[in-house]
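User: Please predict structures.

Assistant: First:
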Amino acid sequence: MLDADYIINLLQGYLPKVAGAILTLIIGFWIVGKISNVAKKSMEQRGMDLSIRSFLGSLISVGLKVLLLLSVAGMFGIETTSFVAIFGALTLAIGMALQGSIGHFASGVLILVFKPYKVGDLVELGGGNMGTVEEIQIFNTILATLDNKRIIIPNGVVTSNIITNISGQGIIGVELTYGIDYGDSIDKAREVILRVGKECPYILDEPKQGVVVAELGDSSVNLNTRPFCKSEHYWDTLFYMQENVKKAFDADGGLNFPFPQMDVHLDK
């Protein structure tokens, strides 16, 4: 059995170190948070891009936390040089196991360098995820959707798929299609759609809106229009046109939205 005095001496020897390590971690993480915030504010004052500020802030935070853990390890008598060597070997092993994560990191750097999008842009990423860019982190890009969902997409997935920056040009065309019956007047439908577009407060005068016959479908004549608006008014324009064109068609009385139907003829 272990001697009681030995256990007491052991506790007396290690308890101060453990307490000191815990206190160091608490204070250290608080200091790391303060330094990260100061670094972000400094970058903001220098006018750095919001995407780069977020990325570098995350990188600084992770680096300082690693240094803090190394310092705490030194408090227990672990040789820092030996620990760094071990840490380097572990990093290599982990890096080989986490090649995907390293790829996401490299993709994040490419995104910040080439800037296919920035914080605040309305984009479609990762094979169909649409939303506003909230943050570009070391490994992920975070989107906020129209219905307030938070989508986290690995940067490697972003760069390996098509990137559609909807708001990147400043103005955008809103693609809309309206079907009418074959017996309805195309000219009247065109007039109604253009009138609604002119009344819409978000649609720009230039480029000028037009209405064309896009398709002669199975049960409808499909008219296509592409009004242009400022990028931030994309959804406002889309919803306004969809609602008010339907109301205008109903009020006109001579225009109808067709629906799929089938005529069945029975032989006696």
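Second:
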Amino acid sequence: MNIAIHPESPSPALTEALRAAGGALVSVPDAAAVADLEPEEGWGLVVVELGEDPTAGLTLARRVRDGSSVPVLVVAARRHLPALAAGDFDDFVLAPLDPDEVAVRVARIAVGAGGTASADEMVTFKDLTLNLATYQATVGITPIDLTFMEYELLRFFATNAGRVWSREQLLNRVWGYDYFGGARTVDVHVRRLRSKLGEERASWIATVRSVGYRFG
């Protein structure tokens, strides 16, 4: 995802969090540069970090919103909260930044920009976001290519985090009571999910010896 970021010298913590989430960052000095520097595939998001002059940053956010449909995320300190009340943006996050929170908020804004899902159609776990309306899954702001049953299994796990489920229970709850496949089906799908979630997040699906699996 292409992300326009203001100011031109954002904090290292914000830059690191956005890059860790898979964003391709382009610094913009003002609202005009957002249009002038827009890549062919367009902006996925504009991030505005408020500094000593929050009015300037919020003005840029308003101009972006007035001139385009690109969602805007504001990064603020607690001292900026009074100014945020009159701001025009899609969401905000407070410093000090939690990279997981940044990734989840970016993903939710990016998915919600198309107007395809309401809040109750979104499932989140750390930086994982599942859009129940479109069957899209993202880690940070990176889409995950899942089959239908992989998505259904991950959705079940994410909405039932912390509990241990046997393979037979998972077959019944996810595949359905009329499914005649063996327990190995669950193991295959878990292995694929771990691979697609990536090395850092594969441990979310823990094997409970002689029982089954636990998510979270």
